[in-house]
Amino acid sequence: MTKDGKGNSDKGNDKKAQQYGVTPQSVDFNDWYNEVVKKADLADNSPVAGAMVIKPYGSALWENIVRWLDDRFKATGHESLVFPTLIPMSFIMKEADHVEGFAPELFTVNKIGTEDLTEPYVMRPTSETIIGHMWSGWLNSYRDLPFLHYQWGSVFRAELRTKAFLRTSEFYWHEGHTAHVNELEARAEVRQMLDIYHEFCRDILALPVVRGEKTASERFAGALATYSIEGMMRDGKALQSGTSHYLGQKFSKAFDVKFQTREQKEDWAHTTSWAISSRIIGALIMTHGDDQGLMMPPNIAPIQVVVIPVGRKDNFDEMVAEGEKLAAELRASGLRVKVDKRDGVSNGFKYNDWELKGVPVRVELGPRDLESGVVVVKNRNSAEKETLPRAEAVGGMTDRLAGIQGWLLKRATDFMLDNTVNVDTYEEFKAAIEAGKWVRAFHCGDPESEKAIKDDTKATARNIPLDDAEFFAEAEEGVCVHTGKPAAYGKRVIFGRQY
Amino acid sequence: MTKDGKGNSDKGNDKKAQQYGVTPQSVDFNDWYNEVVKKADLADNSPVAGAMVIKPYGSALWENIVRWLDDRFKATGHESLVFPTLIPMSFIMKEADHVEGFAPELFTVNKIGTEDLTEPYVMRPTSETIIGHMWSGWLNSYRDLPFLHYQWGSVFRAELRTKAFLRTSEFYWHEGHTAHVNELEARAEVRQMLDIYHEFCRDILALPVVRGEKTASERFAGALATYSIEGMMRDGKALQSGTSHYLGQKFSKAFDVKFQTREQKEDWAHTTSWAISSRIIGALIMTHGDDQGLMMPPNIAPIQVVVIPVGRKDNFDEMVAEGEKLAAELRASGLRVKVDKRDGVSNGFKYNDWELKGVPVRVELGPRDLESGVVVVKNRNSAEKETLPRAEAVGGMTDRLAGIQGWLLKRATDFMLDNTVNVDTYEEFKAAIEAGKWVRAFHCGDPESEKAIKDDTKATARNIPLDDAEFFAEAEEGVCVHTGKPAAYGKRVIFGRQY
C-alpha cells in the first residue's frame, strides 16, 4: 500500500476517479448539489413531473431519520395512525385560509376505473381536514383527549421548479396532529415538538437551527401561530427545516371536533400540527458538504466506517476476509460498517467514491499493514491519513466519530454566526442580503412592509427567535429597518433568502 | 380481589362490558370480523371510497410486521428505495397483460393545480412499470446486477365491495423488485422470498400456509409464474397471504432493461416481484380469533402482556404504581407490556376489552395479591385464571408466551387439516366446497375448466403445492375431477372459496 491513495491495481481508472468527482461547491453551489445528489446515489429524477426517486443510500439515510424521530414520538406518548392518501375535494374547501393556501398546488383525481367522479378527490397536500373529520367521530368527552397522533407518508403539492429533496411535487414526511382540551395544553405540545426537532437537528444531524415564531404572513395556511427551525446553508440561504403549528379551534370548528367538558359543557378541541419532511436531507447536504462531496454526520450516517481492503489480484480475497474481520469488530461496538469488496475499480476510485458519499471514517487495510499490525485511518473532515495500531483504531472509533460529529456542528455554527449580521439601516440590509448573509433587523410587523422587502431583496422574515432560543434571542428595542416605525416583537427578526 | 372478574368498583358498568362484546364468530363470521376490527381499535371506515383509516392498535401491529420483514429483506441483501406514487398512464399501457389486468381498477389524475393534463397519471396499482423505466437508466453491465430492491408504501386499486384490511382501494405493502442476469438466479430469488414469507407466517404470525404455484389463470398480470402462500380462515375460506412472481423478460423488454453480458453481448434482465400487504392482518384476525374477539400471536402482538391494577378508590394509585413495577420487570426481559391505568371503568370492562383486543396474557394485581406475594394470570387462549407467586409469573412469562404462540399455530394447523378433503368426483367436490372446506382434487390444467368450476361453485384453484411444501405436497397421478382428462401437475390442486 502506498500513502498517496494509489494502491496496486489499474492506474487507468484514475481518470475515471477524476470524472467521478463533482463541480466544487465553491465554484457552483447549485451544480455541486445536483451532482452530489445523483453521484452519491441519494436520488434520481423520475419520469413523473416534479417527483424524485430516492435511491438506496438516500433511503437508508431517511430510514435512520424516521427511526430516531419515531422513537421519540412514541416516547412522548404519541400514536401512529394511517390515513388515506386521498381527501374529498370538499374537505379542503371547508377551512377558508386552508383553501387559499393549497388550491393552486392540488393533484386532482377525477376518475376511478372507468367512472368519472362527480365529487373529485385530491391527493393530500397535508391531512388536517380528513383527520379533523375522523376525530369528530371519535371524540365524545374530555376523557378521550388528548389525541396525540402522527403518520408517516408522502404528500403532494405541485411545484414548477423542482430540486431533489428540497422542492419536489411528492415529498416524504411525518405529520403530527394533536387535539387538546384547551389552548394551554395545545401550545405546550406545539412547543414540545419544536424542541424535539431542535434537539434532533443539533444532536443527531449536527445542524444548528434557530427556533422562532413565524411572522403572520409566513404562517401555515390555517394556523394561529407557526413556529419553525431555520438553518443556514453554505451559500448563506435559509432552509426552514421543521414547523410546529398552533391551529386554535379553526379546524375543530370547521370539522366539528367537539367534546363534553369536565363541567358538562360543549367545547371544540384546540389542535396542533407539526412536521419535518425529506427536505431535511437537503439541509444536511447543504450544511455539511465541501468541494469533495457530502459529509454525513456520524450519528445519522447510513455507513459510519468504510473498510477498504487494499490487495493485489493474488491476495485480494485474503484482504477482503481481513476487512470483514475488522468490520465485525467495529460492528460489535454497535457501529454501521461497510466493507468495499468491489473488484475491478481502483483504490483511488473507491477513496473518491466514499469521500463523495461523505462516510465519516475510512479504514484502509493492506497486506503490509496486516503484517505490521496497523491500519490506515482517514477522517472525512481531514486531509491527513493516520497509521495506527489496529487495536487503537478499533477501540477509539466511537470517540473518533463523536469528534467528527462535534466538528461538523461547530463548523456549521461558526458559519451561521459568521454570516449573520445586525443591521440598522435598509441600505445595510440590502447590502448584507446581496452578500448572501442573514440579517438581524428590527421590523414593524406590517405584512405590507414584509412584502415590499421581499419584492425588493428576495429576502423574507425567517423567524422571530424564541426567548430561550440558542441563538439570536436577545431582547432589544428599536425602529423598523424598512418603515422607521416602532419595532414589533421586542427583538430583532431574522431575514434571509430562502430555499 | 375476587376471582370472577368483578373487582370492587362500579357494577353498573357490567352492562357496558356486555355491550362492548362482539357478535360471536360462530353466529356470524362477517359481523364478528367487522365488529372486532372496529372495537379492537384496529381500523375505521373513511370518507374516501373504499379506503380505511388504520387506528393506533392496528398501526402498531403493522409496524411490527414491517419491522420483521424489513430486517429480513436487508439481511438477505435487499435495498429499500422510494419510487413516486404516480405513474404515467403510458407506462401502464406498455405491457399488454399488465394493462388488461389493471386498467379497470385505476385511479386517474387528470389535473395538477389548475392545469388539465394531456398525459394523465395513474396512482400506482403496483410499480413494475416505473421501476422498469428507472432500471433501464441505471443498468449497463452484468456487474451492476442483481438489483435487489423493495419499497414500502401504498397502492391503489378500485374495489366495489370493501372490507377493512382484506379488500380496500388503498392498501399498504412492500413490493420487492429484483433484476438478474439469468432465469436461474431470478427463479432462486422468487423461491427465496416465498420461503421467507412462509417462515414469517409460520414462526411469527402462527399462520400455517401452503406454498405453491398458481395455475396459469390465477397468475399476476404479466408474470410467467406466480407462487403464493395460502391460509385457511376459520370460515374455511382461503386467503392468499403473499405472492412471489417470476416475470421473465416481459417487463425488461417492455422497458428496455438491458445489459452487456460477461461475454460482451446484449441481454435483457430477468425480473421478479413479490409482496405481502396489509391484508395479512385480515388473515391473522380470521385465523386466530374466537367468539370473544382477537387472539394476537405473541411474537407479533403490539402488547404481549397487559397488567391490570385492581384497586378501590382509596388505593388505586398505589396499585397502579405496583403495576408499573411489575411491568418494568417484564419489560426488562424484552417484553411489550401495557399497564391499564384507566380510572372510571370497571375491571370487568377492562378484562373484556383486552380479551377482545387479543392480548396474549393478562396479569391482575390487587392489594391482597400484593400482600400474599402472588398475581393472577390469565392466558387469552384459556378460560382459567391461575394464582401464581409473583416471581414465577415474571420468570415464566417468556415461556408462557411461547406456549401460546405454539398453541395458536397448532390450533390453526389442525383446523386447516381437518377442513381439507381429498375428492375424486365432481359431486364430492361441490359438496365439500358447499360445506366450507378446501378440496384437494386432480385437475387437467385447462383454464376453461377452472372458469366453469368457479362459475359453478365459486371455488378457485388456490395453488399447486410445491414438492417441499409443508402440507399437501404428495406426488400423485389421477384424472381431472371436472373433465375426466388426465391430470396435470403430478399432484392434487387445492381448490377453495377465497377472500
UniProtKB/TrEMBL annotation, chains A, B:
One of its GO terms (biological process) is prolyl-tRNA aminoacylation. CDD domains: ProRS_anticodon_zinc (cd00862), ProRS_core_arch_euk (cd00778). PROSITE patterns: AA_TRNA_LIGASE_II. SUPFAM superfamilies: C-terminal domain of ProRS (SSF64586), Class II aaRS ABD-related (SSF52954), Class II aaRS and biotin synthetases (SSF55681). Residues 1-20 are annotated as: Disordered. Gene3D superfamilies: Anticodon-binding domain, Bira Bifunctional Protein, Domain 2, C-terminal domain of ProRS. GO terms for molecular function: ATP binding; proline-tRNA ligase activity. It is found in: Cytoplasm. It is an enzyme of class 6 (ligase). Pfam families: HGTP_anticodon, ProRS-C_1, tRNA-synt_2b. Keywords: Aminoacyl-tRNA synthetase, ATP-binding, Cytoplasm, Ligase, Nucleotide-binding, Protein biosynthesis. Its EC number is 6.1.1.15. GO terms for cellular component: aminoacyl-tRNA synthetase multienzyme complex; cytoplasm. Residues 1-17 have a biased composition (Basic and acidic residues). Residues 50-297 form the Aminoacyl-transfer RNA synthetases class-II family profile domain. It catalyses: tRNA(Pro) + L-proline + ATP = L-prolyl-tRNA(Pro) + AMP + diphosphate. SMART domains: ProRS-C_1 (SM00946). Consists of three domains: the N-terminal catalytic domain, the anticodon-binding domain and the C-terminal extension. Belongs to the class-II aminoacyl-tRNA synthetase family. ProS type 3 subfamily. PANTHER family: BIFUNCTIONAL GLUTAMATE_PROLINE--TRNA LIGASE, PROLYL-TRNA SYNTHETASE. HAMAP family: Pro_tRNA_synth_type3. Catalyzes the attachment of proline to tRNA(Pro) in a two-step reaction: proline is first activated by ATP to form Pro-AMP and then transferred to the acceptor end of tRNA(Pro). Homodimer. This is Proline--tRNA ligase. It comes from Deinococcus puniceus. The gene is proS.
